[in-house]
């Protein structure tokens, strides 16, 4: 359906709901809200509206639905698939003012957090209560709980704790009708019908606006230890990853990098190389648990074949330094210009062959392109980043994602579909599944105002 621009009457209604300070329509201010983190996608927004409560979110949605104005929910705007930015003049609903964190509830080890709470703030609150939040990712200072629920964020510890969906005990969300659904009681068992946390987690703002989340926390490990492992090729890297995953007690993270990515990070950030001789592939492994973690890590790594060199860290500063090699990949690649970011999972047995195959495929199609491979190897998730290709040139994306689907993988491991992957969803979802997804969308968002054009082709 066509959407109307922001009329004076709607603007006045929005100002009445959230106050004049929270309706922004100066393009010099709103422009940043309509440009994605990668710089590949930029558009315009009619206005940025910043509600301060669930009731205000509901009233804004009712006003927009009545006026036929499309709404793009936005948290920290760190999403990598252009799902949270208005590209065609939609209204941006910024949820960052919903930043209240309730006291950690110690009996259940759960916390209720507003959608606008940053991951870093939540992690600090958990830590102050002697607990941990299980999801972590490099955009922690800006990414919000609402955005992480909406994208079912993955991150560094999925092999141990699962993604955001596994942490979400309850949710409060607002439909475009203004109805508030869900609950924050924190019940671990509640078989009373459709499970809103499961449905809304990963729905990318197309079904409802998440306003609060009830999250489980996990015990804080007593000790951490980590190592970078130098290996000769992709198949060995995957073999080392599997061995670690299956034999390392307290495995906390297993990440993958290549010589090219580590070199880029070192050049960009002025870091020293981690090994005397550059390693073609680097596996990062972190273990965390009861005292003796370093000894258990050393014993496990010591018997794994194919590890040519190691760099070990135990102290927090040194661990942070080793993590920089991996976590700074996104930032270092971004400095080369807008990248095509393909975030895929392969079945474990297919990963080793896929890594060289995908590099060859891209280079054959676009000899001038650079391919950067890194990711969460422990769960088969590799980020295929391609630079040196025009922002609007989708041929490389299509070829890589078709290869992934042929190999039995997912075209979106953790970032979502957004707009960037919309044309490729059919590679993983059948027409019947897409029809069922559209029916769910129509039922929950009858006015069709929530993130039209995101996640669902033609939706
Ligand atoms: C350096 C870097 C590293 C990253 N690492 C990872 C990683 O390891 N794992 C991973 O999964 N992702 C990663 N990401 C991607 C990103 O951080 C996640 O997708 C995150 O969940 C987005 O949160 P956000 O608050 O920024 O959401 P936004 O970008 O604002 O929005 C993302 C999507 O959620 C919707 N949305 C936002 N808030 C709400 C709400 N309250 N209700 C309903 N819908 C909403 C938006 O409409 C959009 O579709 C990384 C990004 C960067 C820049």
Plain-language structure description:
The chain has helices at 8-18, 27-30, 54-67, 119-128, 145-151, 158-161, 164-167, 196-200, 234-247, 259-269, 293-302, 316-327, 329-334, 348-365, 395-406, 431-444; strands at residues 23-24, 45-49, 71-74, 89-94, 110-114, 131-132, 168-174, 180-183, 209-216, 218-219, 223-231, 251-258, 281-289, 309-313, 340-345, 370-376, 381-387. With 459 residues, the protein is an alpha+beta fold. Strands 1-2-4-3 form a four-stranded mixed beta sheet. The protein has a four-stranded antiparallel beta sheet with strand order 5-9-7-8. Strand 16 and strand 17 (381-387) form a beta hairpin. Helix 1 runs antiparallel to helix 3 and helix 9 (234-247) runs antiparallel to helix 14. It binds flavin-adenine dinucleotide (FAD). Residues 37, 72-80, 83-84, 95, 115, 137-139, 143-144, 146-148, 150-151, 153-155, 204-205, 209-210, 330, 414-415, 418, 451, 454 line the site of flavin-adenine dinucleotide.
Summed up:
The chain is of the alpha+beta class and 459 residues long.
Low-confidence stretches: none
Strand arrangement in the largest pleated sheet: 1-2-4-3
Alpha plus pi helix count? 16
Structural class: alpha+beta
Distance between the termini: 9 Å
Most strands sheet? 4 strands, mixed
Rg (C-alpha, Å): 22 Å
Portion of residues within helices = 25-40%
Ligands (ions, cofactors included)? flavin-adenine dinucleotide
Mean pLDDT equals 95
C-alpha geometry: globular
Report the sheet-strand fraction: 15-25%
| Total count of strands | 17
């Amino acid at each position: 359906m066509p959407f109307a621009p922001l009329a004076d009457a709607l603007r006045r209604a929005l100002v009445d709901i959230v106050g004049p300070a929270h309706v922004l329509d100066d393009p010099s201010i709103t422009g940043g809200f309509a440009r994605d983190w990668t710089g590949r996608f930029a558009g315009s927004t009619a206005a940025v509206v910043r509600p301060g409560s669930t009731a205000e979110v509901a009233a804004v949605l009712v006003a927009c639905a009545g006026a036929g104005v499309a709404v793009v929910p936005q948290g920290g705007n760190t999403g990598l698939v252009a799902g949270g930015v208005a590209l065609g003049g939609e209204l941006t609903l910024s949820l960052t003012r919903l930043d209240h964190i309730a006291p950690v509830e110690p009996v259940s080890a759960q916390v209720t957090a507003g959608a606008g709470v940053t991951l870093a703030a939540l992690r600090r609150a958990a830590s102050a209560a002697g607990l941990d939040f299980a999801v972590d990712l490099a955009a922690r200072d800006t990414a919000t709980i609402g955005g992480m629920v909406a994208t079912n964020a993955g991150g560094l510890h999925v092999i141990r704790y699962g993604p955001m969906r596994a942490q979400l005990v309850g949710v409060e969300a607002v439909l475009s009708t203004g109805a508030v659904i869900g609950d924050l009681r924190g019940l671990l068992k509640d078989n009373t019908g459709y499970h809103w946390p499961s449905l809304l987690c990963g729905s990318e703002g197309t079904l409802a606006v998440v306003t609060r989340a009830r999250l489980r926390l996990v015990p804080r490990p007593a000790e951490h230890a980590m190592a970078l492992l130098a290996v000769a090729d992709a198949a060995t890297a995957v073999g080392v990853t599997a061995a670690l995953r299956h034999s390392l007690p307290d495995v906390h993270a297993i990440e993958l990098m290549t010589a090219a990515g580590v070199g880029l990070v070192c050049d960009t950030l002025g870091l020293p190389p981690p090994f005397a001789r550059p390693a073609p592939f680097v596996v990062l492994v972190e273990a965390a648990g009861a005292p003796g973690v370093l000894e258990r890590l050393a014993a496990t790594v010591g018997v794994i074949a194919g590890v040519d060199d190691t760099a070990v860290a135990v102290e927090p500063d040194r661990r942070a330094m080793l993590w920089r090699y991996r976590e700074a990949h996104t930032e270092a690649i971004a400095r080369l210009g807008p990248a095509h970011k393909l975030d895929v999972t392969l079945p474990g047995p297919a990963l080793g062959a896929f890594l060289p195959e995908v590099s060859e495929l891209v280079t054959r199609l676009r000899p001038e392109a650079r391919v950067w491979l890194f990711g969460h190897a422990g769960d088969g998730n590799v980020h295929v980043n391609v630079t040196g290709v025009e922002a609007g040139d989708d041929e490389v994306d299509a070829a890589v994602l078709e290869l992934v689907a042929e190999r039995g993988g997912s075209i979106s491991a953790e970032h979502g579909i957004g707009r960037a992957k919309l044309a490729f969803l059919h590679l993983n979802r059948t027409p019947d599944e897409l029809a069922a997804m559209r029916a769910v969308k129509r039922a929950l968002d009858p006015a069709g105002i929530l993130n039209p054009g995101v996640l669902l082709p033609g939706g």
